[in-house]
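Deliverable D5.2: sample structural annotation.
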Amino acid sequence: MAKSRAHRPPGSRLHAALVVEQTLGHVTYGQNLQAVLAGHPLIDPTFILVTYDMPKWAARVPGYSNWTARSGLRARRAVRAQWRHSGIDVMFVHTHVPALLLGRWMRRIPTVLSLDATSEQFDRLGVHYSHDRSNFLVERYKKRAAKWCFERARHIVVWSQWVSDSLVSDYGLDPANITVVGPGVNIELWERNDAGSHDAGLDDAGLDDSVLRVLFVGGDLHRKGAPALMEAARRLRTDASVPPFEVHLVTTGRVDPEPGVIVHDDMKPNSPELRALYHSSHVFCLPTLGDCLPMVLCEAGVVGLAVIATDVGAIREIVVHERTGLLVEPGDVDALEMALRRVLTEPELRERLGSAAQELVRSRFDARANAMRLGEILVEAASRGAST
């Protein structure tokens, strides 16, 4: 039997279990939460990191190769172990994927659910994630299961207004039970230590200071739009009016050698090497075909880079066209070439966009401030008890 809140000494911190999916940008999100909540005055956090890896034997087990099933079972085992070890006063689950198999625990423990996208939104973006819709009956069951999961949560936090709108319009949820809390970036870690010079970190990154640098960060090269960026860059290199520039690709994907393209395949999230590369760049380009709210845009913004991205998902909540960056339609290489030409040939534009992006990220995507806000929501959820 777990210890209940009634047995807690007065003033002691709440035992919080934080279940965080570890795929794509969620890894960095989990790192940022751990860094901030470890010192929270009201919460004693235990992080349950649900990894994507799958043992070879698991592929032979019917259903276990499915990520929803695998992540849900892993989360359920870990929550049960934590419950037996020290009790859980409040639970945080990011995302709904591992939450779908935590129904029993969501009824028992006050739960805050965190989403970067809803199932309906993911289905609409699915073609770019190698994800296909199932037949009508399966899709109807999926939507009902997701809605049931959402309604079991004591409160829902979402990364963007885009997700909040989907919860209301697609699932009929009460907007009063939804709070937008962006993922954010560790501003103290990422901000430049100099007066804004893009030469900062050049020595660490081993880069040439005589050329402009266009930075791309993304594991899935095709979905993130690297082919469009490479084609636009090839066209611009033939134009004598465009100053010399390089394209730096941070990716684990395979890239064929090409003049003016530098591949970085060993960068880790939040690492000094990655930060040095951002600091020494001038433009950040992510012409993604399908995305929710890429955290790399927060990283680019906080170091003051001029950002070019596509108008998909919630990206426009960070990249406001002509104010904090430039937006183009996904797959439109001509528009991407034009946007790149502008930021490469107009230093005043780069400075204006970068400064505005930095201001927006500082005010809305500060990981420390947003994690502390999340802590407040967890404390409030614990005080209200579990859902019925």
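Annotation notes: Residues 1-6 have pLDDT under 50 and may be disordered. The first strand starts at residue 14 and ends at 22.
The annotation will be released with the project's public dataset once the embargo ends.
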